[in-house]
Design brief:
Number of helices: 24
Number of domains: 3
Helix content: 40-55%
Structural class: alpha+beta
Strand order of the largest sheet: 18-19-20-21
Distance between the termini: 52 Å
Number of strands: 21
Shape: globular
Radius of gyration: 28 Å
Largest sheet: 4 strands, antiparallel
Length: 616
């Protein structure tokens, strides 16, 4: 019988298998169980990278970088393997490395396949040649053509393609009547002028909101004139504005008007926001008594909150710069944009006896900890049984992050009912969580399923009496579903300690469009040592799925308060770093489509990617 001996050469990070009759001096025999484990590890993600699972993050990163530098054309498959290891380890160091590599142009296999499909080329690139690609880059006006060719050129490591892609777009795409039509029907990107991807995403979104865009473009008709005799001071969010405040706000509108005009008429792939606009929006000139109002510096720990914080500043400044709406001479002035985003609601707080508090808020702050759906997060926001950490309408992103570090047993319970809905409903998924064991913050990468439409009928105050019995029944089902999820969380903990091999299949986020967990057939073999531990979890999962479907059936005719998803902001990276982009639905196109806005690149989202993006 042969013994299999294993050496690990640290300089190459590769497993070397040697067969012999006896172990070499200094090496030990490996029994069959160990050999099976080593063979399994060799074929795992670690083995594909030339590593073993007990290596440090630093060694794995070195191995990854060494292999990429050795053959850049295999970088997309290496990134896939490296990402798989990162998900298993939940390592922020590995996540930072992935983000750095992507920022330098390294692409994933999924991105490469999508780029091939863009040009109707087989996923594996069969039949592609430099000559074909050169023809494509010179002849295509399809949205996103250049970005997709950049992905292919990077993956192929073709110097001729890379040289062509470095040329200005106008040198590649010569004047052509077809291009005039293309630029007229496709939006432009915004150049990044220094860690401003979050601001670019926000500006692209606001440009698509008709009321804001038209008010800014026609600013002279609505702008404040604080120098006018008899001008009265304005009060916004409890703060009285001076003439100086209004003048500063008007300067932002002037810069925004210039940018929107460029975006409307430019015949180029992208335009650049002025440095002055960025400076004004990054200043902290909002209400002094408003906490968490302004965007943080680039090195702030919660950098991914910059979109919502910058939105707060911008809307505050717009309200200051434009005249309020006055319906009657003696009526109280109404902020021009308040009805656009603000939800009016009543909050019933249990503190010995119920108290009713009027709540107005422009953004729903939904706390994301585990894999879930947008509907469930909204249930947690509005329903009585949900803890206040996820349902407080008056909470800010910062207070919710702070509450995440506390025990939920000490939290008050609340019930929120909506009295008035706005034309545009804004939802903020808060992913920054606090690890009580390590006393550190981290970004939750939990999957949230996004439906194409959401309905808020069940939360309307007008329905609370008319549909009282029905809504109470639904709340009981939701309560049971929450209990099932808590029980499932409790049952996971001992399994984690026991190292169950099936645990990963149940607890790891599911990245496929079929987000619901699948129960294996009864005849599927499983290790006897874990079967008794896994079955209770599967039972909870099945009950959660059953309750979710029951609730969907119950709400089939609750479809008056309908919202269609218009824009989805996306952040890739950790709790204090990363890149923003935004998906926006273009319903004005001849064929409605989703577009991805990533700084200066605007590309059309295919059907496959659209389905993937429903699970954020």
């Amino acid at each position: 019988m042969f013994n299999t001996n294993v050496r690990l050469d640290d300089s190459r990070y590769r497993l070397t298998f040697v067969s012999s009759h006896a172990p070499a001096k200094g090496e030990k025999n490996v029994n069959l169980s160990d050999r099976a484990s080593l063979l399994e590890e060799r074929d795992s993600a670690y083995g594909k990278l030339g590593c073993v699972s007990n290596m440090t993050d630093e060694l794995i990163i070195e191995a990854f970088q060494a292999q990429i530098s050795h053959d850049i054309s295999t970088s997309h498959s290496l990134v896939d393997v490296f990402s798989e290891i990162q998900k298993k380890r939940r390592s922020e160091k590995l996540e930072i490395e992935i983000t750095c590599q992507k920022s330098e142009g390294v692409v994933t296999t999924a991105e490469l396949r999508s780029a091939y499909r863009h040009f109707e080329i087989p996923d594996n690139g069969e039949g592609i040649s430099t000559e074909v690609l050169l023809g494509l880059i010179r002849g295509s006006t399809k949205p996103g053509f250049r970005e997709n060719l950049r992905i292919i050129a990077k993956a192929c490591n073709d110097p001729e393609l890379n040289l062509l892609l470095e040329q200005p777009e106008e040198d590649i795409l010569l004047d052509d009547p077809v291009l005039d039509l293309y630029y007229a029907s496709n939006p432009v990107g915004l150049s990044n002028i220094g860690n401003t991807c979050y601001l670019n995403s926000l500006l692209q979104y606001l440009y698509t909101v008709k009321d804001i865009r038209e008010t800014v473009l026609n600013m002279e008709a609505y702008i404040e004139n604080e120098q006018e005799e008899g001008w009265k001071e304005k009060v916004i969010d409890g703060r009285t504005l001076t003439k100086k405040d209004v003048a500063e706000a008007k300067e932002i509108v002037v810069e925004l008007n210039k940018l929107f005009s460029l975006m409307q008429s430019a015949r180029s792939r992208s335009v650049t926001p002025s440095n002055r606009l960025v400076e004004l929006l990054l200043s902290t000139g909002c209400a002094e008594n408003t906490t968490n109002c302004g965007p943080k510096r680039a090195d702030h720990f919660f950098e991914q909150q910059d979109v919502s914080e910058t939105m707060a500043i911008l809307m505050y400044r717009l309200s200051a710069a434009f005249q309020p709406i006055i319906s009657e001479p003696d009526a109280k002035p109404i902020d021009r944009f308040s009805k656009l985003f603000y939800v009016k609601a009543n909050k019933k707080v249990k503190e010995g006896e119920k108290r009713l508090i009027q709540e107005d808020f422009s953004t729903l702050l939904l706390n994301v900890k585990d894999d879930t759906s947008l509907e469930e997060l909204m249930d947690d926001y509005f329903d009585t049984e949900a803890p206040e950490t996820s349902s407080s309408a008056s909470a800010t992103a910062a207070t919710i992050r702070e509450e995440n570090s506390k025990d939920t047993e000490d939290v008050q319970m609340s019930d929120i009912t909506v009295t008035e809905l706005p034309p545009v409903l804004q939802i903020h998924l808060i992913r920054t969580q606090f690890d009580k064991r390590d006393k550190t913050s981290y970004k939750s990468n939990a999957t949230v399923a996004l439906p194409k439409r959401i309905y808020l009928d069940q939360y309307l105050e007008s329905n609370q009496e008319e549909q009282a019995v029905r809504i109470k029944r639904m709340k009981l089902w939701k309560k049971e579903r929450r209990v099932c999820r808590k029980m499932l969380d409790v049952k996971k903990k001992p399994l984690f300690l026991q190292g169950s091999p099936l645990l990963g299949k149940i607890t790891q986020p599911n990245n496929s469009p079929q987000a619901d967990a699948t129960i294996p057939p009864a005849d599927q073999p499983s290790p006897s040592s874990t079967s008794l531990e896994v079955d209770p979890q599967l039972g909870e999962i099945a009950r959660i799925a059953e309750l979710t479907q029951t609730l969907k059936n119950e709400m089939l005719d609750f479809n008056d308060a309908e919202y269609k998803i218009h824009a989805v902001f996306h952040h890739e990276g950790g709790a204090n770093f990363g890149h923003y982009w935004v998906y926006i639905y273009d319903d004005k196109a001849e064929v409605p489509r989703w577009l991805k806005y990533s700084d200066d690149t605007v590309s059309e989202v295919g059907v496959a990617q659209e389905n993937e993006n429903r699970y954020q």
